[in-house]
Amino acid sequence: QVQLVESGGGLVQPGGSLRLSCAASGSIFSINAMGWYHQAPGKERELVARIDWNGGNTYYADSAKGRFTISRDNAKNTVYLQMNSLKPEDTAGYYCNAVLRPNYSTFSAAYWGQGTQVTVSS
Predict the structure, then answer these.
(1) Is residue 81 within 8 Å of 23, Cβ to Cβ?
(2) Is 40:99 a contact under the CB 8 Å cutoff?
(3) What string of pLDDT tens digits covers the 122 residues of the chain?
(4) Which helix (H) or strand (E) holds 101?
(5) What is residue 76's three-state secondary structure?
(6) Cβ atoms within 10 A of the Cβ of 88, count?
(7) How far apart are CA 82 and CA 57, in angstroms?
(8) How far apart, in whole angstroms, are the C-alpha atoms of residue 86 and residue 89?
(9) In a 10 Å sphere around its CB, with 0-12 CB exposed, 13-18 middle and 19+ buried, how is residue 117 labelled?
(10) Residue 114 CB contacts under 8 Å (≥ 6 apart), including other chains
């Protein structure tokens, strides 16, 4: 069984910063990639940033470029999202996603964390 546990959300003023963390644990043979999605009320869940686990290549949504940085700690199976210059429109639930193989005999699958709320407001 795979678990993704997120932390680091909260209330921050516009222009402020937050750092989200997501630790993957349980039965993990290999990780392909991890990333962060956000979902505002009434809207679809959207990819914010993703990082390839082996090569470290990153992808950012246009709204995140220049403000957010995704990084990983391979030894801890943990991904981070440093969010700077936060705007009210960044307010959303942020969900960790991992594409991984639980064991050598299974294909890769996507797993989700429970989500952490980020609210940007004065």
Answers:
(1) no
(2) no
(3) 899 999 999 999 999 999 999 999 999 999 999 999 999 999 999 999 999 999 899 999 999 999 999 999 999 999 999 999 999 999 999 999 999 999 989 899 999 999 999 999 99
(4) strand 92-101
(5) helix
(6) 11
(7) 16
(8) 8
(9) exposed
(10) 4, 5, 6, 95
How is residue 87 written in tokens?
A: 């705007």
DSSP 19-73: EEEEEEEES-SEEEEEEEEEE-TTS--EEEEEEETTT--EEE-TTTTTTEEEEEE
Angstrom distance (rounded) from CA 90 to CA 42: 14
